[in-house]
Write a structure and sequence with these properties.
seven-stranded mixed β-sheet, NUDIX_hydrolase-like_dom_sf
């Protein structure tokens, strides 16, 4: 067993408002791509804390997680990286206008599911549309499924 390999643990915020979903357009080596506000779990933080932090850093919106939408495992075809994504659904409780966004983030954007599907070739991963479809399908699990021990 290869004990040196570990998946990259990431979090994502799924936010719907008036039929539109909060996304970010970000610069990648493949050019501009769409993603949910998402990023890597940092040492010492809980999954929920990471989702709140990433949403704020990438969109300047205060994300309030209310549900676990799903847990997704995706081995990226270009290389030996596997992502383990915890997607949280919730709402935004305000925005910090003028707050600088993370490096590489071009802009936050609100898109309908159809608009998002029409830009599939510009998605950072197939998980983006899957998370939205799972949200629309009503997949909402209680946050107490996630246990964090400091």
């Amino acid at each position: 067993m290869d004990r040196s390999w570990k998946p990259n643990v990431t979090v994502a915020a799924v936010v719907e408002r008036d039929g539109r979903f909060l996304l970010v357009e970000e610069e990648t080596p493949e050019g501009p791509r769409f993603n949910q506000p998402a990023g890597h779990l940092e040492k010492g933080e809980s999954l929920l804390e990471a989702s709140v932090r990433e949403a704020l850093e990438e969109t300047a919106h205060h994300f309030v997680p209310e549900f676990l939408v799903g847990v997704y495992q995706w081995p990226r075809p270009q290389g030996d990286i596997t992502y383990l994504r915890f997607a949280f659904g919730g709402r935004v409780a305000g925005e910090e206008a003028g707050r600088p966004l993370d490096a590489g983030i071009l802009r936050p954007v609100w898109m309908t599911r159809d608009e998002l599907a029409a830009t599939r070739e510009r998605h950072r991963s197939p998980l983006i549309l899957q998370c939205v479809d799972d949200w629309i399908a009503g997949r909402r699990y209680p946050l107490d499924l996630i246990r964090h021990y400091a």
